[in-house]
Amino acid sequence: MQRRSRGINTGLILLLSQIFHVGINNIPPVTLATLALNIWLFLSPLKPLHSSCLSVEKCYQYKDWQRLLLSPLHHADDWHLYFNMASMLWKGINLERRLGSRWFAYVITTFSLLTGVVYLLLQFALAEFMDEPEFRRNCAVGFSGVLFALKVLNNHYCPGGFVNVMGFPVPNRFACWAELVAIHLLSPGTSFAGHLAGILVGLMYTQGPLKKIMEACAGIFPSNTGYSGQQYYFNSSGKYFISFNKFHTD
Fold this sequence. Notes:
- Pfam families: Rhomboid (PF01694).
- It comes from Prolemur simus (Greater bamboo lemur).
- The chain is mainly alpha-helical.
- The chain has helices spanning 10-22, 29-43, 49-52, 56-61, 67-70, 78-99, 101-129, 134-137, 144-157, 172-186, 192-206, 210-218, 240-243, and strands at residues 140-141, 162-165, 168-171, 248-249.
- 62% of the residues lie in helices and 5% in strands.
- The strands form 2 sheets. The protein has a two-stranded antiparallel sheet. A two-stranded antiparallel sheet has the order 2-3.
- The chain is globular.
């Protein structure tokens, strides 16, 4: 796991600039809290990256399960933080207004844990089927697995339209898969399994039983308690299609 560089954190400055440009009052509370927590842990990490990243070896073999909580909230460098949190900003605004703040907080928490679990299962399966122990040691941090899951939700609720992926228009319903391949081709160091885990968790919610299980666990838990405030939406065209979903590994 690479150490984050010292010096001016340009990515952090750009992120703060973007947040203030949108306006604190225009950002729903759970989205704002998620941004603040990730920024805080970037500036004051609970543990070094090598002690917070997620791998089969560290979690399963050494029983260090707290990494499931730590890994989504830590980032390798300021640009990793910027791309992920800039994506979270517009996804959070759209989804939190649609789902309501309490349900969105429930979704974020569940997705953060499940994405890590699915990532571990994928890495374990690859290690077993390919007889390659390196997959057990691959260690990842970052929020982009959760962002891929949220992207599936966003595309589910807004199925029409197209997204520009590497210069090609791709229908929203296929955007996650196109971006998964594009990111892996352009940035081989990113975690294919981490992003795939996010897509699978998102599909478990939109197409599978996850939403019903969450509703059953929550009991009487209104999912339509929204955030009242000024509507603000990002233009989804431009660089976000590739840059806002980075998931670093060794």
